[in-house]
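Morning!

This is the sequence you dropped in the shared folder:
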Amino acid sequence: MVIRKLYLKNFRNYSEETFSFSDGINVISGDNAQGKTNSVEAVFFLCTGYSHRATRDKQVVRRGETHARIECDAESAYGKVRVAMDFYTDKNKSATVNGVPVAKIGELLGNVNSVFFSPSELKLIQEAPEDRRRFIDISLSQISRGYFYALQKYKKILSQRNNLLKDVDREMIIDTLPVWDVSLAKAGAKIIAMRNDYIKLLSPFATDAHLAITGGEEELSVEGDYKYEGDESEIEKQLLADYKERMEKDLELGYTTIGPHRDDLKIKIGGTDVRTYGSQGQQRTASISLKLAETEIFKEKFGEYPTLILDDAMSELDKRRRERLLYLAGKMQTLITCTEPDVIPDYKKYNNIRIGGGKIIQGETDQ
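The structure's back. Tokens below.
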């Protein structure tokens, strides 16, 4: 997967600009608040349909404007594709793939694939289980629309079940709950089975990436909770049994206490929980290693790497780790943002794009 062109109009601080990316490493540099992260945010928007930064889509529309547009041309082993999104201040966003309107966000997924790292992705290591679930959900949704739709269905049924548990009519709840449990267990079993397979695939890739970045000095391990194992039908039976067993507890608390919405990952370095005991540098390296592992899963699934986005990933890594990371990133198209290009070893070998005030002020490939 290679993104050739990125077009932005009235997006964040960009009036109108077109980026041209090379197959390999692209270095997007500039002072703070000039638009570096805005450009790669647009790429991720086109891949997944949402932003890691904006809580509301209309926030991306340039101040004083009512409409913004982002568009990219990409090439993969399956052919060329153009994906575009339009944002408005007074209505919902819309998207097209090769000029054809997309009715559901699930139809956008899988057309252009990317893996995104930014400092905010450290939440994957540092914060709550929901941040680790989000990491898995984004990756699996790009790989499988079936997963994405199962996840959406599960969230909807879970919300309805939780609302039911808060009802004051206990007899009605007890009579109605089993109906919701059947639907919830079916959707939940699909999610759990796919997550289990994904984590088992992710773990050795993450270990290898971390060993490569650290020069073999540290070993990373990743494990799922694996509360439920087996195929979907087996997991579905286990969930149904547990819903029944936990009914009184759920009624007491007013929410569903078990299921894939409670899953977590165990991430360790040298057998020690990196969230609790890892340094800032170790946590950053671990997070990047997980992202690199994600690219290998895409490669295994589709026969080619996604575009890797490293937003301000280099600043807190020492020179040797930067060099090793660049070596790994060199296997795929990579977009790297930084304040000064010289933070990237041998940066002159790469496609350098300088940003200032929402404009490309320098864009050339030095060979």
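Headline: The mean pLDDT is 94.

More detail when I'm at my desk.
O.
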